[in-house]
């Protein structure tokens, strides 16, 4: 067996595609991870404020989830089951209904569309078109919904869209909340376009929205804006799809990011942390009357990841049986925001925004954000940039991070900001 001991090993440059990205920003050879810390082969530890792009809300190798997974594997529990009925799937569905949906007064059926977030988005778009008989989808500026063609068609990032290599059609971008400085906040413009036979806009099947745009730059939609959008969709007979792939599973504090606004979407997409342990899993939640799929009309070989059902159930049992976890998450989010307040008072050219434990530090001089992340990495902190120009340092720490670890990471980030701006 060949063992790699140095960061300079050329295995990756020799054998892996140029498309790799995170490894370029974090040139370490990572080996182990526990909670909010990763360790490389040289024994150096890194605090993780990235959490698998939001797929590790409960931290790396969470011991409770790991125990449930190991027990399941040890007893030869089914790993791959397509959409066959299994004990693991049934236990997850029951727990999800009893502890997540019912307490929130939500009535959804669950579709397993495949292993990733883009699978959930693709199924949501297809279903909306099937239900309404219409083609157009309204999306928003700076949105990110995935990398497959349907998801890309409702994604805003020009570089990612260009990778499709073909026209991305049947979608219409509209301004996200505050995109134009508040000039279009009441949706009157949108409704006029919908009602105007001369506008050139075909009647949309649905609107797809993120309540907080993570990849787009931690752009936070106000609760009243989301309510206005939901009301407009009802008046205009359009389905409302909320993409909660990155912002769901407690990232903003509540289990669903749309709870704060008091809206009930027609379709919800979930992935990333729904599997609990970082295992591939995605859900499409559908109002029962919209579940018009024919058997097998949308499927996928890996839609039945039974070990993920096990860890997903364990995560819900441990963290979502009451509101303590949600309250703690919101408190940590406030702590990050207050720390950013202090930074913004000390240095010119920065501001901040966020909700819960997705927080962004925004740099007027966009390249400075990347410099800060590079300096933070040198000090042992993983954080990434987001936004159309990479102008935002986006923090996605595990929701389970301790107060000591959170303060340690924020101190590292402050030192990096001081080095870059001071």
TrEMBL record:
The keyword Transferase appears for this protein: yes
GO biological process: ectoine biosynthetic process
Pfam families from the UniProt entry: Aminotran_3
Gene3D superfamilies per record: Aspartate Aminotransferase, domain 1 (3.90.1150.10), Type I PLP-dependent aspartate aminotransferase-like (Major domain) (3.40.640.10)
Pathway(s): Amine and polyamine biosynthesis; ectoine biosynthesis; L-ectoine from L-aspartate 4-semialdehyde: step 1/3
GO molecular function, one term: diaminobutyrate-2-oxoglutarate transaminase activity
Protein name per the record: Diaminobutyrate--2-oxoglutarate transaminase
Source organism (scientific name): Gordonia spumicola
């Amino acid at each position: 067996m060949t063992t790699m001991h140095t960061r300079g090993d050329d295995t990756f440059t020799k054998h892996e595609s140029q498309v790799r990205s995170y490894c370029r920003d974090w040139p370490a050879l990572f080996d182990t991870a526990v909670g909010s810390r990763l360790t490389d082969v040289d024994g150096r530890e890194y605090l993780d404020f990235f959490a698998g792009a939001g797929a590790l809300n409960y931290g790396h190798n969470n011991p409770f989830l790991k125990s449930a997974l190991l027990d399941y594997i040890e007893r030869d529990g089914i790993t791959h089951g397509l959409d066959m009925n299994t004990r693991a799937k049934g236990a997850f569905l029951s727990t999800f209904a009893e502890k997540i949906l019912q307490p929130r007064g939500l009535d959804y059926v669950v579709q397993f569309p495949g292993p990733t977030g883009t699978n959930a988005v693709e199924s949501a778009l297809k279903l909306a078109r099937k239900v309404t008989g219409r083609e157009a989808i309204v999306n928003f500026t700076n949105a990110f919904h995935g990398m497959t063609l349907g998801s890309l068609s409702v994604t805003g990032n020009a570089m990612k869209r260009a990778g499709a290599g073909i026209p991305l059609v049947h979608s219409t971008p509209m301004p996200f909340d505050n995109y134009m400085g508040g000039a279009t906040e009441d949706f009157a413009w949108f409704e006029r376009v919908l009602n105007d036979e001369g506008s050139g806009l075909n009647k949309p099947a649905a609107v797809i929205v993120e309540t907080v745009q993570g990849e787009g730059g931690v752009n936070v939609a106000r609760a009243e804006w989301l309510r206005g959008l939901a009301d407009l969709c009802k008046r205009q007979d359009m389905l409302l799809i909320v993409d909660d792939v990155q912002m769901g599973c407690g990232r903003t504090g509540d289990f669903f990011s749309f709870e704060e606004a008091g809206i009930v979407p027609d379709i919800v997409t979930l992935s990333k942390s729904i599997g609990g342990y970082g295992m591939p899993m995605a859900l499409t939640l559908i109002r029962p009357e919209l579940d018009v799929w024919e058997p097998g009309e949308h499927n996928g070989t890996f839609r039945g990841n039974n070990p993920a059902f096990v860890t997903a159930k364990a995560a819900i049992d441990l963290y979502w049986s009451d509101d303590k976890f949600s309250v703690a998450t919101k408190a940590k989010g406030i702590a990050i925001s207050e720390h950013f307040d202090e930074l913004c008072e000390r240095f010119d050219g920065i501001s901040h925004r966020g909700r819960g434990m997705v927080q962004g530090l925004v740099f007027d001089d966009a390249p400075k954000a990347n410099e800060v992340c590079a300096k933070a990495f040198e000090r042992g902190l993983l954080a990434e940039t987001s936004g159309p120009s990479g102008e935002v340092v986006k923090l996605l720490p595990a929701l389970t991070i301790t107060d000591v670890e959170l303060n340690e990471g924020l101190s590292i980030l402050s030192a990096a900001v001081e080095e870059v701006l001071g």
